[in-house]
Design a protein that fits this description.
Blueprint: H1 5-19, E1 27-29, H2 32-38, E2 49-53, H3 55-63, E3 75-78, E4 84-91, H4 97-102, E5 107-113, E6 120-126, E7 129-136, E8 139-145, E9 153-158
Antiparallel strand pairs: 1-2, 2-9, 3-4, 4-5, 5-6, 6-7, 7-8, 8-9
C-alpha cells in the first residue's frame, strides 16, 4: 500500500501536535514507604496504586469547565498500571437543575480520552473528595479515597481485582 508524502507528513504532525498539548495533572504517585504510613486502605483490591491528589488545584481547574462544551485544557487521570490518560472534560448534567443550584459543591463530570476512542471517565467531586470510574478496553478502573474522610490520598485499581464476594450487594437487615 502506497501512502502519499502529504498523508505521512499530516500524520506525523498530528502525532507531535497531540504530544505538545498541555494537560492538567494533579496526581503524584506515593512511594511504598509513604503508602505504609497511611495504614490499610478502606477498599482492598488485590492490586492497586496509591496516589496523592492536589484537590484544591483540581477544584480550581473544574471551576473553569463551562456549563456547555469542554474544559480548555485536558485533565490527566491515573490508571492502575502506572500510566495516565488525558481526558476532555465537561459537566455531566445528571443532577436536576434545582438540586444542582441547591448543592453547587456537588458536581459530576464526563471525560472523553484523547486519542483513545471508547475510553471514557465519569467522576464527581464533593466534600468527601473525588470518586472516578474509567472504562477502557473492556475494563473498569476505579479511583476512590484511600481512607474515609481523606481527600488527599486515593487508591486506583481495576474493578476485577476486588476479592471474591466483595462485589455482592446485600439487603440491609432491619
Amino acid at each position: 500500500m502506497f501512502l502519499s508524502p502529504l498523508y505521512l507528513s499530516l500524520w506525523f504532525m498530528s502525532l507531535f501536535s497531540q504530544a505538545s498539548i498541555p494537560v492538567a495533572n494533579y496526581w503524584t504517585a506515593l512511594s511504598k514507604s509513604r503508602q505504609a504510613k497511611l495504614g490499610t486502605p478502606r477498599i482492598r483490591p488485590t492490586s492497586y496504586r496509591v496516589l496523592a491528589l492536589d484537590l484544591p488545584a483540581l477544584k480550581t481547574y473544574l471551576q473553569k469547565v463551562p456549563t456547555t462544551g469542554t474544559a480548555p485544557t485536558p485533565l490527566a487521570l491515573p490508571l492502575p498500571n502506572g500510566t495516565r490518560r488525558s481526558f476532555q472534560v465537561q459537566l455531566s448534567g445528571v443532577m436536576a437543575p434545582e438540586l444542582a443550584a441547591k448543592y453547587p459543591e456537588l458536581r459530576a463530570y464526563i471525560g472523553r480520552a484523547l486519542g483513545a476512542p471508547g475510553t471514557d471517565a465519569r467522576f464527581e467531586v464533593s466534600a468527601t473528595g473525588l470518586r472516578a470510574m474509567i472504562t477502557a478496553e473492556g475494563k473498569v478502573y476505579l479511583i476512590e479515597s484511600y481512607r474515609t474522610g481523606d481527600t488527599r490520598h486515593y487508591i486506583c485499581f481495576d474493578k476485577a481485582q476486588m476479592p471474591p464476594g466483595s462485589k455482592r450487594w446485600q439487603e440491609p437487615s432491619n
